[in-house]
Structures are given as structure tokens and as C-alpha cells.
Amino acid sequence: MSSNQTARTAAVPVGGGAPDARQLRAILIAVSIALMAVIASVSGLNVAQTHMAVEWGASQTTVLWIINIYTLALAALLLPLGAIGDRLGRKPTLITGLIIFGAAGVVAGLAPSAAVMIGARVAAGVSAAMIMPITLAVITSTFPEEERGKAIGVWTGVAGGGGILGMFLSAFLVDVADWRWLFALPVVLVVVALAMTWKSVPNSREHSAHSFDTIGALMSAIAVIGLIFVLQEGPERGWAAPVSLISLAVGVAAAVAFVAWELHRRDASLLDVRLFRERGLAGGSVTLLVVFGVQAGIAVVLFPFFQAVLGWSGLLSTAAMMPMAIMMMTTSGLAPMMAAKIGARSTMTVGVALSTLGLALMALFVSVDGGYLSILAGILVMGIGMGLSMTPSTEAITSSLPRAKQGVASALNDVTREFGTALGVAMLGALVANGYRRAIDDKLGGIPHKAANTAREGIANAVEVAPSTGSHAQGLIHTAQQSFVDGWQQAMWAGVAVMGVLLVYVALRGPKGSDPAVTDEAETTETVAVR
Description:
InterPro entries: EmrB-like, MFS, MFS_dom, MFS_trans_sf. 76% of the residues lie in helices and 2% in strands.
């Protein structure tokens, strides 16, 4: 265990003692609702891209910035704000984040221009970085050890399936009302979470003998911005474009500088990188990185399949994702019981194996004619596997750091998810796009040159240009659909290969069990818990 834990006093609970079962339920509901507001805002605006572009005359680049700036600000500030929350107090940090987040949602919903919307989304991303790590830190620092795994399972289920649920509700609001009502859902959730947090969530904070690691916080933010930016913009601008290469270079250099600085700071570091030598932190982080990457990549290829291949609406396409979300959220809650019986590593191994099987089933059976039923089994199996693997991975990360550092531990968990999401979208999206182009290139004989070039850009483009090709219209649409499925299969098999490597890693090097770092006996930094 890290030398962070030496020469410090034991935890000192102040006022009211430990929460009872009723209070713990209220705490869990409060932080889950707060988390749901943040997660729903990550994916919700995806369904309103066209509406924003038309209303403001905004370019596709501007619309993508409106969506991506939120994730960029969130990911960049998770570690610094998680650490600040540990020091200043988790309850006031959570309340402040909720107030700013709610205000940003109101401004976004009333935004008269794309510029105002971008500003509101930046504020929402910053406040989300205050909320997201604190929600998990409240659980790990408040719940007793025997209840902690179940609570983390609920949190993980919301974090994993909440995005799909939020997108479904957002698509519903767009269909039945106006796209601006997308922001009503997060604002309502924030109001409820704020009231429950004020009443039920206890405060806890770290009293550290060391000054805040400002340089480490700055280096971590620069590294995350550089690496996330290149993953978001690389597919659009080109991986060899100067801005992509510069962003990659800055991100890698800052990451290396961050590691070197943290090793130099040792006990006073923002994140003790030496802990990655331990199975819990390393295994949990790698598993979440890959699993969330695959999940996000799957979502990227599923929506074009539903909309362009099957011809479904946005709402119906989002509803088609719900079985995976339901399986994921259900098994996330069951995973702690399974881990208690067979161990964390075995549970993670089963989860990763099922996720790999789900990908393989989709790759084997997906077809244009088979429609939704050709992928349903794979979606269900993958949802079960992801739920089983995410909860013990999250617990492995949070249990690797002491209770006083749970804001940092939770932030690391969240940063890993964001990196995995960005990486999965970029890589699997690129594989599908390249596979589609290779498959359709040899099937465009007889199609007018201009229409053929448009069709090569993507399946949505092919469907849009098809009516202009006269008698070739139906043939072009079918060719594009089949080419997309061919590209899909290549991406799925690549995902199977990556998950197969992860399966071997987890089976051999996964966490053996819960680390005692966050138990009361191992607590080494004075923590104040007040009602």
C-alpha cells in the first residue's frame, strides 16, 4: 500500500454517528439522481444535432463542438475537482456543482445562439466534473463495508445504462415537444438531487498535511484535453492533420510530465501513480477503459444500423438500445453478490467473457434481412457481461486508495470511462467507416460519378443521394446497407479481439479481492463527517 497512509490519524466521525439504513437509502438515491443528470447530458444532445444546425444556421463543426465541449471540460477537470472536493468537503462541492449545473441547463435551454450554447455547455461540463466524482466518493466514504459493494453496483448501473436511458428520454422529448425541452430533464433531476443532498447527504473531507498539487492538477488537465481532443477531432479533421498531431503531442508530453511530477511528489501527489503496480487499480482501470470503449463504439454503429439500414426513427432506434441498458443496470446490482461468492476476479472474468460473446454473436448473425432480431441476442448478452464486469472494476479502483482520497479515486474511475468512451467511438467508428468504403467501392458500377462519390462517404449519404440515381436507387440503397453490415462485422471482430486480450489479462492479473484501503481501520487521513 502507498506510503500516503503513514503518520496520519484515524478517522474521527463527528456528530450523529454512522447513517442508518433509511439514511443510506436516501443518500444512494440522491447521488444516483445527481449522476443521472450528468450522464443524461453527455448523450442527450446527440438527438438534436439537426435541430440546432437549422435553428442557428450552425455548421456541423459548431454543432459537434456544442456536444463535445461538455465531455472535454468534464474529463479535463475530474481529477483536480475530485481532489478539491476531498479537501473542501464533499457535500458543499456536490451542492455547488448541482447549482451551477442546473443554472447552465436553464441557460442552454433558452440559448439564443450557438455561442451562448457553447458557453453554457462549458459551465455544465465544469460543474459535472464537480458532481460526478463526488457522487461515488460519497458512497465509498459513507457506506459501511458490507453495504458498499451493493451501493457501488447501483451507481455503476446508473453510470453505464443512464446514458442510453437519457438518450431515449431526450429522443422522446424531441419527438413530442421541442429540442429545447431536452434540458428540462437534467434540470428537474438536479432540483430533486439538490433537495435530497441538502437533507440527507453527510459531509466529509480530508485534512492533509500537504499543499494542493497545483502543478499535477494542471498537467493532468492538459493531458486529458490533448488526448480527448485528438480522439474527438481525429476522425473529422484527419489523424494526420496538424491540429491532430499537435494535440496528440501535447497530450502525450503532458501525460509523461504528470507521471514524472507525481513520482517526484510521492506522498503529496494528486494521484499516487505507484499504486498502478497493484492489481486492483491497474486491473480495474484497464477493464473499465476497454469495456466502456467497446460500449460507446457499439452505440456509434448501432444507431446508423437502426436508422439507415432498418429505416427506424430516432426514438425507436434509442428504444432498441434499452434491452442492453436494462441488462446492464440489473446485473450491475447483482455483481456484488456474485463477487462475494466467487471473488472479484472471477466475476470480472465472467463479465468480460460474456461481453466478448455478445460481440461475437452480433458479428456472426447481423444481416440486413435479419433486422433487429439478428443482433438482439448479442445486445442482451453484452449488457449482462458489461454489468458484471463494471461494478467489481469500479470497486477495485476505489478500494485501492484511502478513504480520504475517494474524490481522486472516483475521478480516476470517471476519467478512465471518458477515455474509454472517446477511444471506442474513434476507433470502432473509424473501422466501420473504412470497412464500409472498402465494401462499397467495388459495387458502384453504373452509378453516376458524383452520386457514387457521395455514397462512399457513408450509408446516410448513400440513402440521401439514392433518389437522384433513377433506376439505380433501390440497388444503391441495398448495396449501401449491405456494405455497412460488412463494415460492422469487421469492427465487431476487432472488438472481439480486443476483449479477448482483456479476458486473458483479467483472468491472470485481475484483482483478487477488495483492498482494505478504504475501511475505517485503514483510514489514515483525518476525515470529518458532519450532518
